[in-house]
Amino acid sequence: GIPTKVIAPHYRNYLDSQTDYPVIRIPSVKLNWLEYEVAKKKVSKAIEKQIVEERPVIFHAHAPFIVGHIGLKLARKHQIPIIATFHSKFYDDFLQVSQSRLLSWFALRYVVRFFNHVDEVWACNEGAGLTLKQYGFKGRYKVMVNGTNFTYPDHADILKKRAIEKYHIEPDEKIILFVGHLIWQKNIKLILKTMHILSQRKEKYRLILVGEGGNQEEIKAYAAEHQLLESVTFAGVVHDRDELQSIYLIAHLFFFPSVYDNAPLVLREASVMKIPSLLVRGSNSASVVIENDNGYLCDASAEQMAEKIVSIFSDREKMQVIGQRASQTIPIAWKKIVDKVEEEYALVLKRYYEEDKI
Length: 358
Known about the structure:
This protein is 44% helix and 16% strand. It is an alpha/beta fold. A 6-stranded parallel β-sheet has the order 11-10-9-12-13-14, with helices on both faces. The protein has a 4-stranded parallel β-sheet with strand order 5-6-7-8. Helix 6 (156-166) packs across helix 9 (241-250), helix 7 crosses helix 11 (302-313) and helix 10 (265-272) packs across helix 12 (316-329). The longest helix is centred in the last third of the chain and has 24 residues, at 334-357.
């Protein structure tokens, strides 16, 4: 019920007609070494007018880079409060691109400086907030968790049958699922090493990877080099919700050993679909998991992960119980989150204008 505009870099192949809110596109450039479009630093007066013509009451930045800085500049110019949410482990991204720890820490100063200048900082869980503190942020943050729009489908049997046929699933196969951005930072090499160990066993373990990303060709090459193409299926990116849910429904275990993610939406989706998840013990992703109650945890070792997976599949009844518990304890509907966000926005506005009067 609150009018909302989204400001984002221009992407050549994306149709804004797919959204039900107005999107203002900032002119952007595509750098060969990045898979994302990068917004140009300055916006025209026409674009600025588009952004502020209806006098927005709050800016909310979800990245501390050029578009975030545009929001910060306009917030200060027009005396509008700005919130910023910290989602990602930027150091890992910087290191992946630069291959230099020194340059990566230098780049973090740019990130931290942005969060130091906004009016309020939100983190998607406590672990994410602590990560930002480790980066050098000295201020306070508020935890605002992620939700999901997923619901368990009424026609689950039909969807499951469809996926079994599409992916030629055999009755004795043990299906392990990963959904996400195909980049090395998400510990995909650990997933493939684990699958290599499992492929030596008599039981049929099969991994389905859903997603695309900057390292997908390298990941496919790695799988081929280690003779994993018979036990690994690359499903590509899946936009259709029914199709994505059908893949979740054929999975027995959701395997997400990323220590890069903070509060992955895919973990919430898997939980809605009553699939137990295996995550890395102590990771931010695992903050909502109670071991052997609503999920499984293990150290980040391929050998230990393989042993853990064998152990998990040895008790199918317990897997079902843990999957059911996950569906009851992990997902939160976005509606509830948004109600809380609306309350917090009101508090931010109250503090901003009260402090302004003092």
